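stage 2 :: seqdesign
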């Protein structure tokens, strides 16, 4: 990423992504899907995020999501497609995004020139993404771009998030971290979800979590207290570095000035969303 300041792309991602991920912590998607009989929180999440892939089976969802227990996925997929087709879910998803962003940001921000500018910049960045080996990005890239700027921004944020996520999975595989080891090491770094949220949403239990920690200890990546060792910290840094390399194309395409401006605009929107309660207070942390 020689044409961009160090970590500029990662900082931009961290500002843009909250506007995408807020949907999965909001009640709106569940409200939109409830009339179709999709009410379990896990079913709502799995349907909402997997719908761009089409009516796929549990294996495809487990593979592309990476860190969900397969038994949890199979409990809801493909049953969700019997309740609502992927096209129906996608329409419900956009309605939920519309309501969520209006509630979190307010009508003025949603219709502002800044939102239109942010949407244009994020879409331009997404032009630099590549489909090969990136199933979740590619599936979202096949969807039409919504006409409303705030929905276009969310769509672009989703493509950028999944592009990075697909790359991160490749880095995890190269590092030999299985799904729960990846989650446990991320939490131990102080940057991941708190264990209570991992266990509540990914289908694992406390015994699974403890086993993953033991495996990390056997590799010398975690100490007895659950902290990352020096080697573990280095591995997490290497994972982010490798992900940055594989995710550099959209930000290189946008250019340093565009990345800086998108970061500035997205940070304002994300801060406003966080202040409005987009995420639980205890979502992140080691305990």
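stage 2 :: out
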């Amino acid at each position: 990423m020689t044409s961009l300041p160090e970590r500029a792309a990662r900082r931009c991602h961290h500002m843009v992504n909250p506007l995408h991920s807020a949907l999965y912590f909001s009640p709106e998607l569940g409200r939109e899907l409830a009339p179709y009989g999709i009410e379990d929180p896990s079913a709502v999440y799995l349907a909402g995020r997997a719908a761009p892939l089409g009516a796929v089976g549990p294996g495809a969802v487990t593979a592309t999501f990476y860190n969900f227990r397969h038994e949890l996925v199979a409990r809801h997929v493909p049953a969700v497609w019997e309740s609502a087709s992927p096209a129906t879910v996608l329409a419900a998803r956009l309605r939920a995004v519309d309501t969520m962003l209006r509630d979190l940001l307010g009508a003025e921000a949603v219709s502002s020139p800044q939102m239109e500018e942010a949407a244009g910049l994020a879409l331009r960045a997404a032009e630099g993404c590549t489909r090969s080996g990136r199933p979740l990005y590619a599936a979202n890239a096949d969807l039409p771009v919504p006409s409303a700027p705030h929905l276009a921004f969310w769509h672009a944020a989703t493509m950028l998030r999944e592009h990075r996520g697909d790359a991160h999975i490749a880095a995890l595989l190269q590092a030999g971290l299985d799904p729960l080891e990846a989650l446990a090491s991320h939490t131990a770094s102080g940057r991941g979800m708190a264990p209570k949220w991992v266990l509540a949403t990914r289908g694992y239990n406390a015994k699974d979590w403890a086993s993953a920690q033991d495996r990390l200890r056997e590799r010398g990546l975690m100490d007895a207290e659950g902290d990352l060792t020096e080697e573990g910290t280095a591995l997490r840094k290497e994972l982010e570095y490798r992900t940055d390399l594989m995710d550099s194309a959209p930000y290189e395409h946008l250019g340093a000035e565009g990345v800086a401006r998108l970061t500035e605009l997205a940070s304002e929107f994300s801060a406003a969303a966080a202040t409005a309660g987009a995420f639980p207070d205890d979502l992140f942390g080691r305990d």
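stage 3 :: structure notes
- The CA atoms of residues 7 and 244 lie 8 Å apart.
- The two ends are 35 Å apart (CA to CA).
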